[in-house]
Amino acid sequence: MSIEDRIRSIFPDEADIPEEFRLEYPVIQKEYLVNGELCIWQGRMQEVITPIYVKTLSGLKQKVAGSFPRLTKKEALEALQAAVRAYDQGKGLWPSMSVHERIGHIRDFLFQVESQKMEIVKLLMWETGKTYDGSLREFDRAVDYINKIISATKDLSDISSGFIAEQGVMGQIRHMPLGVVLCMGPFNYPLFETFTTLIPALVMGNTVILKPPKLGILLHYPMLTAFQKYFPPGVVNTIYGESSDLLPSLISTGKVDCLAFIGSGKVADMLKSRHPKPHRLRSVLGLEAKNPAIILPDSDIDLAVHECLRGSLAFNGQRCTALKILFVHRKVADIFLNKCAELISKLGFGMPWERDVFITPLPEPDKTKYLTELLEDALERGARVINVSGGMVNKTFYYPALIYPVDAGMRLYKEEQFGPLIPVVPFDDIEVPVDYIIQSRYGQQVSIFGNNPEEIADLANILINQVCRVNINSKCQRGPDLFPFGGRKDSGKGSLSVADTLRMFSIQAIVTAKRTDKNMEIITTIEKDWEKGAMPAEVVS
Hints:
The protein is an alpha/beta fold. The chain has 17 helices and 25 strands.
């Protein structure tokens, strides 16, 4: 069967879906968590449409995963007030706990979440179109990240000592919570990325309002009872619905102390602008990126092709760390393109539960229409599709397109496609990709492929002042999670590595006193009391 025929028949009959992967019934979520209570919503509901179609007698029908509450600003403000009361200007139960007590709550929470693994993974697969294996990996990575956060938090506590002395003054430096944190994760990694801000915010003593992403929302439903059971009232509160209905009123109160947001810069800018005291708002942002790859003439072409396609097409290119534009030296462009096209034709595609599938349907509404517009713009301006069937569409499914030659006059040159389009730009002068990266509004990562140590070293030393990570002979990626992860320019604010994220959700404070006998007595008492409560920060030498 040809690629075209397989695309035309990609969606299954209902009966052909393996029983272990079926949605037996829609998940109707009416509960939301505020102040430790699972409130029952009686109002308007929002339907969750999956990217999967099934064949029926009347044609293809899109599967419905369930529905969730469309709360109003009234419920959002109630969640905010609950978080504010639980924090209580830093005097609340949660911020006053010792770090080891908070870790205990998080471990109990994690234990229950792990018991719900398969339910969460199946919802993740259906809601986002992520492969079953990819959904399993995301769950496992989220668990691993939480365990790393716990370990890093204990390390931070263990290396802390009591008071230090300098120039006759004693001081104890601590990491203190910020207050109320609004956590918003992205649809492409709705479990893992949400936890990379939620858990650090909690372990540092903040209270949280969690708004799950619109795509990938029901998978958080099984965790509601764990949030309720293992955290004091008001420490974790959940809101659901349209961001435009909920967030402006919430932010404009000035009572949100930290915005933890992974998504579009446009939304982040809107939210930050609504805060009446912007200098008091800590922002932890993971935003867009247009990560380039540079393939030099002496590259190992097979390696470059493998890494670039994995970097461009993993989860259909729906990753901020995806390679979204490839600069290929003209001397090796033909062989690079031919090998890319051949490898694309061998990539498995189909339904998320099928074995060895790499390309799956896209969850965003009208995404295939947008990708088609980008492709048509490039074709009208002189580019061509290199691979067989590239850009073919069936409902929510978009077959990857390798596009060459792309130039500065095309939308694909600058717009972040966030999908399976692979624009390739030829170059003769290395200044072409270097200038692109310098002029770009994005600054997350770059990949360099080549074998000349001096040339790569020169490039890396230039580009490390433009992006936050230079990858040599490998695709762009976030991990390992102990490494720094952030972005320059419009690609983000703050670092979300395991160690750095603990500092992002806390603020340094210090208790000092001149060294006298009386002050020594006072300080000893403070130190003993502090060991029962919050966590000291690193020692300053």
